[in-house]
Structures are given as C-alpha cells and as structure tokens.
Specification:
Blueprint (H helix, E strand, L loop, with lengths): L17 H9 L4 H7 L4 H10 L1 H27 L3 H11 L24
Amino acid sequence: MAKKKPAKPGRKAAKFDYAKIEQFAGLGLDRVEIGKALGYGQTTFFKHKRNDPKIEEAILNGRAKFKINLSTILYQQAKNGNVSAAIWLDKTRCGMRETIEDSNKQPLPLVSFRDEP
C-alpha cells in the first residue's frame, strides 16, 4: 500500500489581537496602517475585518478613545489661553463659520477696509 503524501501546510490562519487593534486605532492609525502594524497585507486584513465584527468594534473603540484624548488636550489648551485652539474648537465643535449671511441665506462679500492704491 502506498503512503499518503502529507497535506500541504498552507498558510497559517490569521489571528487578531483585538486589544492591539484598539491600541493602534487609539494612536490614530487608519485601517490600512493597523493591518500593516499587525503584519498583514491590506487585502488579508480587510477580508478578515469584513468577516469578524470584533475587529471593526475594536477599531471604533480605539478611534473614540483617540478623539477623547485629543479633545481633552485641545480643550485644556484653549482653557489655558491658546487662542488658536479655542478658535479651532469653536469652528469644529460649535459650528462657527467665518462667512456672514444675510436674511436670504446668501453669503455676503467680505469688505476690506485697507486703502486701495
């Protein structure tokens, strides 16, 4: 009787550390960068992310923590007198705009008060 050939080893199954994924997302890495940091190519990482909802959940949790940390730092900067931080917060978080609108919701031109030659 002939011996059976051993099965081809193939690729190792991809295993993901959800805590590391959350940590990398918390550092501000995007999905492609997280996959690379874990040692996977974009195709492999996105395929597994599509099939494993825990991966996307870890990314969303990490991104939320990232935003909280940045917002806290920015808020503290504004509170301590950093005018640029206060303006940025006002524009992005409070919806402030630099355009002036009339009652017809048409933007008005900004007028320069400099002396024109």
